[in-house]
Amino acid sequence: MTTGPPAGMADEISMLRDLVRRFVDTELIPLEPAVMERGLRYGATAEPLIPPDAHAHLISRTRELDLFGIDVPSELGGHGYGAAFKIIALEELRRSIVPFVLPPDSPSLHMMIAACDEAQREKYVLPYARGEKRSAFALTEPEAGSDAAAIRTTATQADGGWLLNGSKLWIGAADIADFFIVIAVTDRQKRARGGISAFLVDQATPGLDVGPPQFHMGDIPVFQLFLHDCWVPDGQLLGQPGQAFVLLANRLGLRRVEIGAHCVGMARRLLELMVDQALRRSTFGQPLASRQAVQWWIADTEIEIQAARQLVYAAAAKLDAGVTDIRREAAMAKIYATEMITRVADRAVQLYGGMGFSRELPIEWIYRNSRIYRVADGASEILRREVARGLLGDVAK
Prior knowledge:
Blueprint: H1 10-28, H2 32-40, H3 52-64, H4 83-93, H5 106-115, H6 118-129, E1 135-138, E2 154-158, E3 161-172, E4 179-185, E5 196-202, E6 208-214, E7 222-233, E8 237-238, H7 244-280, E9 282-283, E10 286-287, H8 292-320, H9 327-352, H10 354-357, H11 362-369, H12 380-392
Parallel strand pairs: 1-4
Antiparallel strand pairs: 2-3, 3-7, 4-5, 5-8, 6-7, 9-10
Helix pairs in contact: 1-4, 4-7, 5-7, 7-8, 7-9, 8-9, 9-11, 9-12
């Protein structure tokens, strides 16, 4: 199985990695004090973690550096480099705690590309690929998280369109989205076997309301979404009725690989901090680097980062080879990487002691904000079942 850069493209991969690394060092890391300071007020104000003027500058810089649209197909105006290139860029970006997203969001983009008609391509996909529109993905509900087939939001045919009713929660970017990709039940009997559909719903559609922020342990705001007799025309149905579950599985697969890359990037930043502390700090007249326990923390961290990276790269390589069903590979990458970052963050806090627990360093931020990754977009327990099914068949259901 291919686990490294695409054949014959090692130089391009290296150039991209260096370019994004410099962007992180010069543009993102200097913003970290402002992000941490704003994070302290999260819940008391609705201000974004990245100041708006700084965000506009970052978007401008990504265009100047030609980082915009890395995996956007060339026919849509992008570079068309594929999943591996985007994954490498995401890994580098997450070395910083600044929650900057390199647009456009790949899972939603490729989900729309796979199912859109020509009108949807012009209205949504093209402006989304150019960064002119933003989206939010609305799947999770109060009674349905990792079990996507259990959603209760319904869509019923009415007057040349569909009436959507239900509620969603933990929806990121709902406050700034121009449109939503809403997953709803169109056939209660079939559900995951032909009864779940996807709809493109504009922010200003009557009957759609975004609730106030849902405050949680991390710093990234999420929202509830309410749909009450929210009517959309037939042209807003993404793909064929009842066929969204395959699209959903593919989208979640790509998102899980991205999460794995995020964890690798965060772990690398923590390892850099751990090495610095081990070499700089002394206790009882000896540097921390001389302590066997510290050496093992650092060695285990490096080993686990490399292992997680290979799982992530292997899944991305399959996507670039044209494999659409990467559920098993994505599950393994996400399980290992998200549990790895938990262990690494804990070691970093322990190595720094009280300073690791303070908000003067990014360690505390990573410790808190990385915890959601073991739950979001498929809990580790659900994903382990996915891996087991591939080996044990129906008996593992």
